[in-house]
Amino acid sequence: MTPLSNKHKVRGGQTQLRRVDQWRQQNMTPDWSHLAHSGVDYVKLWIDPWSRLPAREPPAWLRRRMLSGLLDIHDAWARASAGRLDVAYLALWLCWPHFASSQVVMASPERAEMYRTMFTPAPARPLPAQLSGQQPRLLGLNWQTGLDEAVLEGEEVARRLSLLRRSYRVETPSSGEPLYFFARGHVWVGQQLEAR
């Protein structure tokens, strides 16, 4: 096993649960100064060892606790941002099969449109059974389905020609350098049912 590997068996289930609970508690309040400065605040699942590179997916028993934490953070942020004019977008992004990429995102009016159009729309799909069956609170959000894509520039794709065997789409922005979008899975964007 190489020293940079993230494949060791994860032990200490209670320690893992404590880490998730600490992460949840530390992120229950939005960082208003970060929102004011950059126009966005977000919380990712930065919990060791799941956030190390290369990324790996947590087991189902821990994923349930992480999902509950994401929902708690989303609910707390929704209460904290109610009536604020500096918040125009608040959503929970659930990624599958890359659940560790899931996050809660809040954006200012200036940045909201970028986040509303962040993902390429995909035909509506139900939430994965691995997620939807575990958390009835998910039904309290309005879900839209998008594509979870990895974006690479032409030089990166040229070095990894094996990627071209996978399905992809190409966009050329005004800068002229083509961007290659490779599908990784789907993302479900959940927002409160009432209009924001």
Question: Gist?
Answer:
The protein has 196 residues and is an alpha+beta fold. The protein is built from 6 helices and 6 strands, in the order ααβαββααβαββ. Strand 5 and strand 6 (179-192) form a beta hairpin.
Would you write up a description of this structure?
The longest helix is centred in the middle third of the chain and has 22 residues, at 60-81. This protein is 31% helix and 25% strand. It is built from six helices and six strands; from the N terminus they run ααβαββααβαββ. It has helices at residues 13-26, 32-38, 60-81, 109-116, 129-132, 154-159, and strands at 40-44, 89-96, 103-107, 141-153, 168-171, 179-192. It has 196 residues and is α+β, with helices and mostly antiparallel strands. The N and C termini lie far apart (49 Å). The model is unreliable at 1-6 (pLDDT under 50). Strands 1, 2, 3, 4, 5 and 6 form a six-stranded antiparallel sheet that branches. β5 and β6 form a beta hairpin.
